[in-house]
Amino acid sequence: MKVIHIPCLEDNYAYLVIDEKTKQGLVVDPVEPEKVISAAKEHGVDLKLVLTTHHHWDHAGGNEKIKELVPGIKVYGGSIDNVKGCTNKVENGDKLSLGDGISILSLHTPCHTKGHISYYLTGEEGEDPAVFTGDTLFVAGCGKFFEGTAEQMYQSLCVTLASLPKPTQVYCGHEYTVKNLQFAQTVEPDNAKISQKLSWAQQQRQSGLPTIPSTIETELEINPFMRADLPEVQEKVGCKSPVEALREIRQRKDNWKG
User: Fold this and answer.
1) Would you say 22 and 99 are in contact if contact means Cβ atoms under 8 Å apart?
2) Which family does it belong to (predicted)?
3) 30-43: per-residue pLDDT in tens?
4) Which of 19, 29, 55, 56 is the catalytic position?
5) How far apart are CA 37 and CA 34, in angstroms?
6) pLDDT at residue 51 in the model
7) Contacts of 48 (CB under 8 A, 6+ apart)
């Protein structure tokens, strides 16, 4: 399983995922379809599927166009998310496949939108799995609670995604890492792993390189939202439960001027 970053708009990523045996490909959130098709041609890939994480235009806005450009392509999206151009609706636990070697599991991760889906991909034995988290989980952050509650985000981040294997590669929808880590330092100023990751992320961006993917293991070390169930993090934000802490951290981030 090979994953290609495709920078879109100001700070979005679409991702081209290739089954290297069959040269079949899928794309996650192809908001700029021409860029995606160009990348597919460059790698000699036959595009079969679109995986849409949620209905916001900067993720689903290219679906209709890609259907015109690639006749017969299937467009998957959450069953309750009203995804533009969707041809196949998915629910939590639905399974898909690409080529010979890639299995896809749909995970309902609501809060940013009601029907947000993250896609968990496994390839050949020995390859690290990958999860495409859209705007639910970012490197060191999470999406705004536009359509859901802190309880839902806790379930999505700290139960559903946190239970994936630790080496799982995390591919999110936006390049927000530097700002997220700067904010994370305000929550846990003594967390050395956050400081180390921030230095690395700043170097990556100065070199014009992405800070993505992360891993589930890394997120559990640096992401204040995924660490909300730790007593020491709750104490730092003056809360007594994980959900309360998650809500408080999100409110602080929404008001942070960093």
Assistant:
1) yes
2) Belongs to the metallo-beta-lactamase superfamily. Glyoxalase II family.
3) 999 999 999 999 99
4) 56
5) 5
6) 98
7) 24, 25, 26, 73, 74, 98
Sort strands 74-78 and 88-90 into parallel, antiparallel or unpaired: parallel
Number of neighbours of residue 239 by Cβ within 10 angstroms: 17
Residues in the chain with pLDDT values less than 70: none
Rg (CA), the chain: 18
Active site annotation includes 29: no
Name the residue with tokens 């991909």: 121
Based on the residue annotation, tell me whether 108 is a catalytic residue of this protein: no
**How far apart, in whole angstroms, are the C-alpha atoms of residue 16 and residue 27?**
5
52 and 86 in contact (C-beta within 8 Å)?
A: yes
Would residue 59 show up in a list of annotated catalytic residues for this protein?
Answer: yes
In this structure, how many other beta carbons lie within 10 angstroms of the beta carbon of residue 141? 26
Is 55 a known active-site residue? no
Domains, the chain, ranges and CATH?
2-255 (3.60.15.10)
Which amino acid, one-letter code, is at 117? I
DSSP letter for each residue of 81-139: S--TT-SEEE-TT-EEEETTTEEEEEEE--SSSTT-EEEEEE-STTSPPEEEEETTEET
Distant-in-sequence, close-in-space partners of 192: CB < 8 Å, separation ≥ 6? none
- Look up 116 and say whether it is catalytic: no
Residue with token string 């985000």: 153
What single-letter amino acid sits at 234?
Q
Question: Which residue of the set 19, 54, 55, 116 is catalytic?
Answer: 54
The helix or strand, by DSSP H or E, that contains position 230, with its residue range, turns out to be none
Q: How far is 39 from 26, CA to CA, in rounded Å?
A: 11
Q: Is 43 a catalytic residue?
A: no
pLDDT in tens, 179-232: 999 999 999 999 999 999 999 999 999 999 999 999 999 999 999 999 999 999
Q: How many helices (H) and strands (E) does the chain have?
A: 9, 14
